[in-house]
Design goal:
Blueprint (H helix, E strand, L loop, with lengths): L6 E5 L2 E2 L13 E2 L2 E7 L3 E4 L2 E5 L2 E2 L12 E2 L2 E7 L4 E4 L2 E5 L2 E2 L16 E2 L2 E7 L6 E4 L3 E4 L2 E2 L19 E2 L2 E6 L4 E4 L4 E4 L4
Parallel strand pairs: 1-6, 2-7, 3-8, 4-9, 5-10, 6-11, 7-12, 8-13, 9-14, 10-15, 11-16, 12-17, 13-18, 14-19, 15-20, 16-21
Length: about 200
């Protein structure tokens, strides 16, 4: 059982490197995996809150060459298999967003900003052996958004703006199988899986 009176922080971020020289591309950033589980009759109690981050941040390009893609990772919060319990008394904030790198000013062979792909967040109470539970006693916020890279400022050869990258939303899932339970306090819940 996690000690009461603590805030649990878990991170699985990935960040691509920025381009160092003109004409080189930024690296891709991939978020990792974060797991918080109560299983086989175990219990986890967090009094002050939970913060889990599995963001992917792409590096920025240099002078018109590709910026990196950013892909969010995976966050899994689960109580399963028997009378397992997972309780978060404080605020819970889960982020598996993907941020593409930014484009740059260019004069020729300009390319669009990178792709931002949201990750996957799964929050659930399950198992063949029933009686497992998850309880969020305060707010629950979960985001798996994808933020496409901004365009290059302008292509000076054609006097046009270069396209920004795609933003693709990921997946956020809440579930409780028969005989198990998941509850969120009346303070509220916000789930996002949006592409920007």
């Amino acid at each position: 059982r996690a000690p009461l009176g603590t805030v649990l922080h878990r991170g699985g971020d990935g960040e691509g490197g920025g381009a160092g020289d003109s004409g080189t591309s930024g690296g891709d950033g991939f978020g990792g995996d974060v797991y918080l589980q109560a299983v086989n009759g175990g219990s986890v109690g967090l009094e002050q809150g939970l913060y889990a981050n599995a963001e992917g941040v792409g590096g920025s390009g240099s002078f018109g060459v590709y910026s990196g893609n950013g892909s969010g990772g995976t966050i899994t919060v689960v109580s399963r298999d028997g009378t397992s319990s997972l309780t978060v008394a404080g605020e819970a904030n889960l982020e598996a967003d993907g941020y593409a790198g930014y484009g740059s000013e260019c004069s020729s062979q300009c390319s669009a900003g990178g792709i931002g792909q949201g990750g996957e967040i799964s929050i659930g109470s399950s198992g063949v052996l029933t009686g497992s539970s998850i309880e969020f006693q305060s707010t629950l916020t979960a985001s798996a958004n994808g933020y496409g890279g901004e365009s290059a400022i302008i292509d000076f050869d054609t006097n046009t703006t270069i396209d920004g990258g795609e933003g693709r939303g990921g997946t956020v899932t809440l579930y409780a199988n028969q005989g198990n339970s998941l509850s969120v306090a009346e303070e509220g819940i916000m789930l996002e899986a949006v592409g920007y």
